[in-house]
Structure formats: structure tokens, C-alpha cells
Amino acid sequence: QVQLVESGGGLVQAGGSLRLSCAASGRTFRAYAVGWFRLAPGKEREFVAVISGSGRTTNYADSVKGRFTISRDNAEDTVYLQMNSLKPEDTGVYYCAAALFGLGPTSVGEYHYWGQGTQVTVSS
Fold first, then answer.
1. How far apart are CA 12 and CA 16, in angstroms?
2. Which pLDDT value is given to residue 112?
3. Neighbours of 107 (CB within 10 A)
4. Which residues contact 106 (CB under 8 A, 6 or more apart)?
5. What does each of the 124 residues of the chain score in pLDDT, given as a tens digit?
6. Are the C-beta atoms of 5 and 116 separated by less than 8 Å?
7. What is the dihedral sign for C-alpha 75, 7, 115, 70?
8. CB 17 within 8 Å of CB 84
9. Distance of alpha carbon 76 from alpha carbon 29, whole angstroms
10. C-alpha 73, offset from chain centre
11. Is 1 exposed, middle or buried (0-12, 13-18, 19+ CB in 10 A)?
12. How far apart are CA 36 and CA 47, in angstroms?
């Protein structure tokens, strides 16, 4: 069992930055790939970024490439999502999730554990 807790969300103006954190507890964290997803009103939950257990492999949605950076600190059992040049369309609830298999799964169904989410609101 892995428990995930997100933090770092908030209200920011367009062009601003936020850093989200996903703190894990439970079983060996470095065995899991960790992804970030977001849920906007009226839309389905969508993939944002993923990092492999070792941290050597990352993948991003096209909509955030060049603006967001995912990283992890396995000594602290934490994954980060640095979000720069934020746009109003980045608004949503951001969830981190852990997957036991694969270097960088991008679909919701591939993940075994989910956090409760943190709200990110970008004003224009």
C-alpha cells in the first residue's frame, strides 16, 4: 500500500509559477513510477507528466512540454512538479499517482494509488 499526499496548489496569475509536491508513505517508493494528472471542469482526467522510479525517465503531455518539470527525491519519498509560465487552461485539480509497472505510464488505468488532489487556479 502507498499513500500519496499532494500539496502546493493555489491561485496564481497567468505567467506565474507553482511547485506541487507529492509526498509518499508506505511501501518502497522508488519501485513506483509517479505521474501527475489534472482534472478540469467538464473534462476527463488527463495525463500531465510522469517520472520513472529511478528518476532517469520522464515524459510530458504536449500541452506542458517546456513549461513543466517533474522530478523526484527518493531519499525524501517525494515527487515534484515545477510549473512555469502557467496559463488559465492549466487550471484544475492536480493528482499524483503511483504505478508499480512501467517506466512511464500515461493512462489513468495503469496507476494503482492516487492522492486526494490539490487545486490549481490560474487567473487571466
1. 6
2. 93
3. 12
4. 35, 47, 50, 59
5. 899 999 999 999 999 999 999 999 977 888 999 999 999 989 999 999 999 999 999 999 999 999 999 999 999 999 999 999 999 999 999 999 999 887 889 999 999 999 999 999 999 9
6. yes
7. negative
8. yes
9. 10
10. 14
11. exposed
12. 6
CA angle centred on 49, ends 41 and 45, rounded to 5°: 25
Looking at this protein, which amino acid is placed at residue 47?
F
The three cell numbers of residue 23 are: 509526498
Burial class (CB in 10 A: 0-12, 13-18, 19+), 68: buried
Straight-line distance from the first to the last Cα atom of the chain, in angstroms, rounded to the nearest whole number: 40
pLDDT confidence of residue 95:
98
The answer to whether the CB of 38 falls within 8 A of the CB of 94 is yes
